[in-house]
Design a protein that fits this description.
single chain, about 425 residues, alpha+beta, Beta-Lactamase, Phosphatase 2c, domain 1, 2 domains, six-stranded antiparallel beta sheet, five-stranded antiparallel beta sheet, 12 helices, 16 strands, about 25% strand, elongated
Length: about 425
Amino acid sequence: MTATRHASRLSITDMDAILGVTRALAAPFDLRAMLEEVTRAACLVLRAERASVWLHDPHARQLYVAVARDVEQVRVDMGVGLVGACARDRAPINVPDCYADPRFNREVDARTGFHTRCSLTLPLVDHDGALVGVLQVLNRIGGTFDVDDELLAESLAAQCAVALSRVRAVEEHIATERLRGEMELASRMQRSTLPASMPTLPGYEMHGVFLPASLTGGDTFDLALIDQGLLVLLADATGHGIAPALSVTQMHAMLRMAFRMGADLETAFRHVNDQLLTVLPDSRFVTACIALLDPSTHRLRMLSGGQGPLLHYRAADRRCEAHRATWLPLGTMPIAAARPAIEIDMAPGDWLVLLSDGVYECEAPDGTMFGRQRVEQRVAAAALQSPSDLAMHLLSEVEAHRAGMAQDDDITMVLLKRSETC
């Protein structure tokens, strides 16, 4: 598998550096600071002597260098040089000997005195498929860029493109609508990290719900097929508004990057916790349940940082088994010796039910909480239905319990069911 192959040469220090890049690019930068972080990260991760970011000017159909030492005010047309060809074709270009490639523009070397031996040039394309720029990395220390470097660079370029698009959007929007603009943008950014559709996994049905209490929320979820299996995530950052939304988005990005680099469940859990320790204020943390399902064995393993209860409905017994968190909330303290992962065998008809506090702690006008017992009763009653039906019934009952009172906490659900006949 791609991530596992090039992850095999990553040391613990390398993985920390990559997660640090993901964390940094998710933070609220101004444009120049973010671009400097991109070039620094590219040199660090790819062991290169130099890196530059070229921004796309769609009106002029040109690219211009934004951050690079010794180079200022350089523009190239689309299709011209290695940078222009990369932008035009939207494909990486790996050149082991630049002076032997007719597309290479020697003018910049002549102006700066820098000698370019080899280069790796990658397009920066955002989530919407729009070209936002080009990342060029020069002179791999000790040799030329290989296939593993290309795979690693593509992962970094994907992070850079999203970060660049986000920062540009933030700057443009703040210029017109300050507070409202920030809130709406944060909401779109947060929702863009949620699954656009549910994965297709034979023998399983799944459904996710995210209903923030305001424009932005501190919750997130994920259901995604990755190299390690089916990733199941529910996370909740303390508080409401932009700050928790950014915190949980950072956590989500770091987790996906860790798995993309080939980490197992325990390694990803520990590294994300340690990274959050460096960025979250003392008063903030993230509760999260992170699980991986092996579809071939139907074995599900999960670790939870402060998130619970974690419900496993056993179809054979027609009852729910509740599991507690295996560790403290993420970002509160280093992990020395966490409890072993919870292991569940998903038998035919079994469910995994992960719900945020917005369900369990929903209050009626008299102060009575919705509670776990009501959840378990609804799960048992809907055991033969689909996850989307169960979600609909739970939301309806929570709303009825609230009896017209405003929703004061984010509501997030992750529901996974193994089919009765499998």
